[in-house]
Automatic annotation (TrEMBL):
Protein name: Putatuve alcohol dehydrogenase
GO molecular function: NADPH binding; oxidoreductase activity, acting on NAD(P)H
Keywords: NADP, Oxidoreductase
Domain Enoyl reductase (ER): 9-324
Native species: Aliivibrio wodanis
Length: 326
């Protein structure tokens, strides 16, 4: 069984399920029997057509999952049949059998469960790479993170704490304290509440902050950039508002050290050795609970449409991931 997209558009309309026969292996390929695959916002955005310039139709969605090697083309492969691997680098995980070049398969340590392994790539690698490869961490730095109650937001906060940083969390509703269990924060500010919003403005009055991690974009990016110290760092890693950052951002804060972080760009420019090294770091953090992902439920691929509909109808974004099983 596999999910296939023949046209871009709303996921519930664009995804079709069909029975399929495993294709013959090409040189340097492994055939994986997929165990689990996750449903991420990046999957649904890709299906909608947002990245159509680099996606060729038809395609099989799914950027994250784990599988077990079922067959190897090359007898000299560094893997053996039965090994658990993490296939990355492209879509294609929403199918029972997946053929993929060995160079895009990565080892999974024995201490991770199948479910942990299947959720150890998109959010954990994005968060860890952004913090260790792009953010300029200094002792005692002040840092603001928006979208703080999202799954990746909470993960980033735990990682920042692990690295010695105690951030300021921006949220959009009251009574979120319980969501930040096991997180150290210097403040929680509700940007939709005028009473608690005052501390937001006072940050600027007290000299500003060193860095901002932004997953929202749009007009909020400019508003929050005004909190930065001169030459402060602003990293955008998402666009939950659906609105690009306007040119006014750079006109009004030309001093800001601005950068985007895209997991895909890092992965496709790094060596396999460097990718495996970072994955090893991330998987240890997953095992230790710092980068672990909450799993809401596991559903068979035959229930994929129902799972996507549930995700799209959620009013909060911290229910946990839904995994597809094969």
């Amino acid at each position: 069984m596999r999910a296939i997209v023949n046209k871009f558009g709303p996921p519930l309309e664009s995804i079709q399920l069909e029975n399929s026969t495993p294709e013959p292996l090409s040189p340097h390929q492994l055939q994986l029997k997929m165990k689990y695959s996750s449903i991420n916002p990046s999957d649904l955005i890709t299906i909608s057509g947002a990245y159509r310039s680099r996606i060729q139709l038809p395609f099989i969605p799914g950027f994250e999952g784990m599988g077990i090697i079922n067959n190897c083309y090359d007898t000299k492969s560094s893997f053996t049949i039965g090994d658990r691997v993490l296939p990355i680098g492209s879509a294609g995980s929403w199918q029972t059998y997946r053929n993929i070049d060995e160079k895009w398969c990565f080892s999974i340590p024995d201490y991770l469960s199948d479910e942990q392994a299947a959720t150890s790539y998109i959010n954990p690698m994005t968060a860890w790479l952004m913090l260790t490869e792009q953010l300029n961490i200094t002792e005692g730095m002040s840092l603001v993170i928006n979208g703080a109650t999202s799954a990746i937001g909470l993960m980033i906060i735990r990682m920042l704490n692990h690295l010695g940083v105690i951030p300021i969390a921006l949220v959009r509703r009251d009574n979120t304290e319980s969501l930040f269990e096991n997180c150290q924060l210097s403040a929680i500010i509700n940007t939709q509440n005028s009473t608690s919003y005052q501390p937001f403005h006072s940050l600027k009055e007290h000299g500003g902050v060193d860095a901002i991690l932004d997953c929202i974009g749009g007009d909020q990016a400019l508003e929050q950039a005004m909190l930065l110290k001169i030459n402060g760092q602003f990293i955008n890693y998402g666009l939950l508002s659906g609105v690009p950052i306007s040119a006014r951002f750079w006109q009004e804060r030309p001093d800001v050290k601005f950068s985007y972080f895209h997991l895909r760009q890092w992965i496709h420019s790094a060596s396999k050795k460097d990718i495996q090294h970072k994955l090893n770091e991330v998987m240890k953090l997953v095992h230790d609970g710092i980068a672990e992902t909450k799993i809401d439920k596991i559903i068979p691929i035959t229930s994929l449409h129902s799972a996507i509909e549930e995700i799209q109808n959620r009013t909060v974004n911290n229910n946990g991931k839904i995994l597809i099983s094969f």
